[in-house]
């Protein structure tokens, strides 16, 4: 997830530095793919580490944060672009995203070592076969 976020940041910074359409579209495609990866990983992590009794509430908060992040980022990017330029906004946003992701990885080393645990086979019979 951290790698996907760093790739997204670098792709957005590259997008800000492009001068022609083809590289700009390529950078946006890479950013979109990296963003999709992080969304899927974030959802999977939340689902696997949250205890059953809290899963609905935690998933709701995760959804709200995921849905609200883009509009907040758009306001930030627009403000920086209005105060400086769109190029500065895209490049600084991408580099900032990369840097903050590195800091998160350094501050929370357990997050960088996260690996999904293999599913444990249940010894209970499926509900439809119990009578």
What do these coordinates show?
Helix 1 runs antiparallel to helix 4 and helix 3 packs antiparallel against helix 4 (86-107). The protein has one domain (2-117). Helices cover 76% and strands 0% of the residues. It has 131 residues and is mainly α.
Short description:
This protein is an all-alpha fold and 131 residues long. It has one domain (2-117). 76% of the residues lie in helices and 0% in strands.
Q: What number of structural domains do the residues give?
A: 1
- Give the helix tally: 5
User: Quick one: biggest sheet?
Assistant: none
Total strand count, please?
0
Estimate the global geometry from the Cα principal axes. elongated
Tell me the span between the first and last alpha carbons: 43 Å
Radius of gyration, rounded? 19 Å
Query: Helix-strand pattern, N to C?
Result: HHHHH
Coarse structural class:
mainly alpha
Q: Mean pLDDT, nearest integer?
A: 89
What is the secondary structure topology, with strand pairs?
Layout: H1 2-17, H2 21-49, H3 55-83, H4 86-107, H5 109-112
Keywords:
5 helices, elongated, mainly alpha, 131 residues
